[in-house]
Amino acid sequence: MSAQAQVVTFFDESSDDGYYDTGLAFVGGTSTFTRSGPSGDKLPVVSGQSYRGNDALSFSWNSKPGGNWDALVIAPGWLFQDITQSDTLSFWVFSNQLTPAAALPMISMEGAPGTTKSLKYSLSQFQGDIPAQQWTRVRVPLDVLFLDPAQTAIEFDKIKAIIFSQGQADQTNHQWLVDDVKTVPAASGPLPAPAELVGFGYERHGDFTWNRVQAPNLDGYHLYYSENNGQSFQLAKYIPATDTLTLHWWGDSGNGFTRQYRLTALGFAGEESAPSATVTVTAAPMTNDEFLDMVQRATLRYFWDFGHPVSGLARERNSSGNTVTIGGSGFGIMAILVGIDRGWIDRSEGRERLLTITDFLQNADRFHGAWPHWMDGNTGNVIPFSAQDNGGDLVETSFMVQGLLAARSYFHENNSQDSLLRARITGLWEGVEWTWYRRINQPVLYWHWSPNFAWAMNFALRGFNETHITYLLAIASPTNGVPASLYHSGWASPGYVNGQTYDGYKLDVGPARGGPLFFAHYSYLGFDPRNIRDAYTNYFVRNAHHTLINRAWSIQNPGNHPGYGPDNWGLTASDNPFGYLAHEATLSRDNGTIAPTAALSSMPYTPTESMAALKNFYRVHGERLWGPMGFKDAFNLREDWYANSYLAIDQGPIIVMIENYRSHLLWDLFMENPEIQPALDAIGFVADTTSSITGVDREDFSSGWVISPNPLTSNELHIQAPATNDIRGRLYSLTGQLLWESGLPALSSGVATIFLPELPAGAYVLSFTRHDRPLHRQVVLLAN
């Protein structure tokens, strides 16, 4: 039996809301022990404070004369465990106050039905006082149980539970957190010190990577930090053995500080290696560019460090194992290009990853040239997305092709490896049978086809939604192209045109208020919508208005969700406390869940508003929302819920669209492909520079404004602005209620005077728009 197999875990994480389903507590007499769960007999868990993982068991008791209590920590799944190859029972304790050794609980085990429980032993036999306010590891040598001649016939290869029981009746309230309860093997040799520890200091956290320690008894790592230039170190956190990156959140650093960090490796029986070399990191306020670097670099890890080890493709989510996603992998290819271009990934290593990906795609399941939504990252075999969806997915395939074509442009050098990659990408692109997905020459494309269920999914692609890129590529295909007329008969079919104005922003096409924000992202990661329009709209302007309408919904907040506001917005498809939903600006699809990808992936459209949201997500919510691979998927303040998940389709657009804002790298690469412009011409796209909203225009509009006085003591307000006409003003309460609206009078020497309605003292938001470009300023009204 391997050393890893000798570790038997009874608790390290709970999947339940506030309790551990396989943890039971029983109380008798006058003693007390706090219990939880729907049946009232479960062990409570506490989130956000743990030795490892996301939560820990909560033991809160008072042992009294004539009373008793037992807390059973049962292995996940209620399974019986063989601990005969283990050497030590180990767990970690965090006590609110010092627990004297004499007051420690008893420890025992319970076996399979029909066998007796083990003898009880006082933990004071193995552990001294438990100090206050720090994690302490407790170890019980299992030979004490195995070899005790008084032990009855318990079967240690069928252990059901580790039992903590009442010890000394000290009539004192005790509160413990208990975590990482397991039995482990004996030490199997010294552990080498971790090597190549690298640390980066950001505004409110430190970020660390290192090389994996190669040792059969590796159980994890300890990260330590020093605040006195390395004279003494204290434990920052435990890190699982599977990780080679972590962060340490330190919160608001004020004017900044410098810390030293080092790392040790841990063995199963508690042995600890010598420390790594020490690294120094500094906390300091960050510029906008530093924020963008931080977000892109961390988010890139999802596709680079966490990429599937065989296929190189992106896993569907961080808990998906071998399930990889085709669309999210297309986004990931573009993310890798960003990493190479910014110097975070070596060009030859990035190219090698793409050669691995393209080789895998050549041999993976395809259905008339289209890949499935999901596949096995080891074999390339389809994994059904739903009961009848086990074949080709044309939309996911278009997201993949969008990324591949950007990569074909990027690797343009005249060498054998670049040439090989370009040739593979061309073969994959030309192998997609877009014509097949017309379903026997229908005037519209269809999403799915299965060899088992044919067209049973019956999903015609009609806009406006995320499938714009699918029609562009189907028309652009040099081998299996569809007529450009399908763009109008299929994509822009009845119901496509909108023409309504919401919160001052006209929406030419799309559903009411625009739909979930991923509609404005997925098709435009490579397809550059700037400075052109088709018969219906300019899509850059359309997407900017969609974003601003989505944000305005959060400012107005008709659902009264806590936390919503000018800097906390973004409704799109994401995880939520109740499952998964395509959230959007409607009451039926807004349950209070904000997804960072919504605002951050809109950076090219709304740079000022998106940057403000980024800083809010990091500075206000970062301790629970930021992780080693960037912002986690979503959060909901009404439910006090922060996701632990990362999703490929949400992480990828963050990196790519931030880069399109910063350098338009992916837009340039994709549009360089020679097949694209003829397709746009055939569709009817024409130049349209007059109505585009560029990042520069938006920044110019927001500069040069002076609002005085602020705070104000009357309703008279003076506005100095660089623009002289066509400015409309609105005043909102902080809950989003529109209180006043008017065009600004003609400016005299750039200054206008307006009179607000009589209002109570408080804070308000002034909103100005000119040619559909917004500006927001907060004003404070003092009592008259």
Looking at this protein, list some descriptive labels.
784 residues, alpha+beta, twelve-stranded antiparallel sheet, disordered N terminus
DSSP summary: helix tally: 16
Note the overall shape.
globular
Strands, count = 42
Mean pLDDT: 91
Instruction: Characterize the biggest β-sheet.
Output: 12 strands, antiparallel
Q: Report the end-to-end length measured between terminal Cα atoms.
A: 80 Å
Amount of beta strand: 25-35%
Q: Residue share in helices?
A: 10-25%
Which residues form runs of ≥5 with pLDDT under 50?
Answer: 1-5, 692-702
Structural class given helices, strands, pairing?
A: alpha+beta
What is Rg? 30 Å
Task: Characterize the structure shown.
The structure is a single chain. The protein contains 16 helices and 42 strands. α2 packs antiparallel against α13 (648-662), α3 (326-341) runs parallel beside α13 and α5 runs antiparallel to α6. The radius of gyration is 30 Å and the shape is globular. The longest helix has 18 residues, at 539-556. The strands form twelve sheets. Strands 1, 2, 3, 4, 5, 6, 7, 8, 9, 10, 11 and 12 form a twelve-stranded antiparallel β-sheet that branches. By secondary structure, the chain is α+β, with helices and mostly antiparallel strands. The N and C termini lie far apart (80 Å).
